[in-house]
Amino acid sequence: MSDRFNYEELGLKVGLEIHRQLDTKKLFSPAPSELREEVDFVFERGLRPTMSELGEIDPAALEEFKKGKKYVYEGNYELSDLVYMDEEPPRGPDREALGVSLQIAYLLNAKPVDEVHFMRKIVIDGSNVSGFQRTAIIALDGRVDTPWGSVGIPTICLEEDACRIVERKEKEVIYRLDRLGIPLVEISTTPDIHHPEQAKVVAKYIGDALRATRKVKRGLGTIRQDLNVSIRGGARVEIKGVQELDMIPLIIEREVERQLNLLKIRDELRERGVKPEDIKEEIHDVTDVFQNTESKIIARTVKKGGRVLAVKIPKFRGLIGREIQPGRRLGTEMADRAKKYVRGIFHIDELPNYGISEGEVNAVVEKLGLGEEDAFVLVAAEEETAKKALLEVIQRAREAIEGVPEETRRALPDGNTQYMRPLPGKARMYPETDIPSIYIPPEEKERVKASLPELPQERVERFVREYRIDRSLAETLVNDERDELFEELVGKGVKPSLVASILVVVLKGLKKEVPIENLTEEHIRDAFDLYLNGKIAKEAFEEIFKELARHPEKTAKGVAEEKGLTLLGEEEVERIIDEVIQENIEVIKAKGMGAMGMIMGRAMAKLRGRADGKLVSSLVRKKIQELITN
Question: Do 591 and 501 sit in the same domain of this protein?
Fold first, then answer.
């Protein structure tokens, strides 16, 4: 368990938001929910924020609008119809997606609503062509029980996924339309998670419930986990894009560390007597200081006609360079805010460095009239761009005096996080007028409730109990979603231990050699049919699967015949064993039954895949005994 901090004492609160794609057609269109690289058409759009019905503008939407970007959309005619080009009203919603959502609701102990009402959520980062995402509440008041206590699930929503990014440029983003409209379930928990490991337990339980339906997509990008984290005295921070279950505790721990360090910086700033209003929006041109600079970045910018601008940050010296997460400082947070305008900033705590000399630092200090505790931040860019970047730095410095700002952050691969945008406000939802409400009759709810699938852990326990297979094999079968195929093959008469061994051990062993993702369930069924009909030995599975993975257009029967893997008759097997015996007769006379292992190995080298191992062993033993007896 992660116990670096006393989380109870810190008042840690964590809430989860889990988004998972459903494996059905698109939510408001009969188009397939697939991803494809072929592009048939391209068009452009520009988006702007609008006021909600309350007359308010969402701050996150306003932040995106400030970037002034153009959005380019690439589409495929088969996967992107007029609905998802925003040229035709939505259809649906897809009834299968709705049914799967109800299953998920019951598996998470939630209560489905009587009527489904879709809403529009303002999104203007270009990921939705229309500038909004359609979403609806499906169920309320669910829960997950953990060793730390129960965690509530106040809402389960059904919504449409966004476009996927192809390329992000300075003033343009290129999106692919194929992902737009794939149904998503969004599951939100209450902030009743008080330990990093508890968050992982809750996320796993929810993930298990989703997978139990067999109607969720798998693979990179099909699931997105967001964390809402706060500590006492800190602020709620939303962390987006947590891909791996095992990373959840580390990301929470790192966010706790970040907030604690920001609170320490706040306290020190207050001791120094600085207030937010002390940080003036006074930007100074210090280009003349760097006329002969050795800083390549600054020299290149000035040569192109850019300027070097600076701002005084009173009482911040020594704190901008203070580490708040491993490898990240308060200055990093300032740079993240300025990134929408410039690639980076320079601050006094890291200078002299990057080609900037001590003399140049002192000249800036003198020009800005800095005291011993005062800091400065420099930006080299086109003048107006540099000013905008420094205004972002000023804003972040003011927030540092207050403590921890509420914001949305991006999860990084090392467990740290990075600023994305302000937290979205409540003024981003309004009714969807193109989709009528959908009544869910009681009999439909009862039908769904009566036919719920087993949760993965329940299925593992049943496999261990009923089929007497090793727990690790059962867990792998369930996690790899080969459990239904396993039961189907066992039902045909194959021993459970053999099926489990081939579906887990053999396939796992082939992963490094061949692309086993090419191996279909039909391939596997056909190979087992050959085995059941006495056409191949169990030793032939590995070779057959290896060839089918390389050449999925082939059949199991064809590979068996091509590779000479069809079972030999007993007479032919005996003839080959006799040959091996004669080739090694002197060894057998010298060692007796001690030669059994060697003879068995040499016989199987000639017969592997063409004879049952038990038959070979029996015949080898019999013939050695006969030889040493006579």
Answer: no
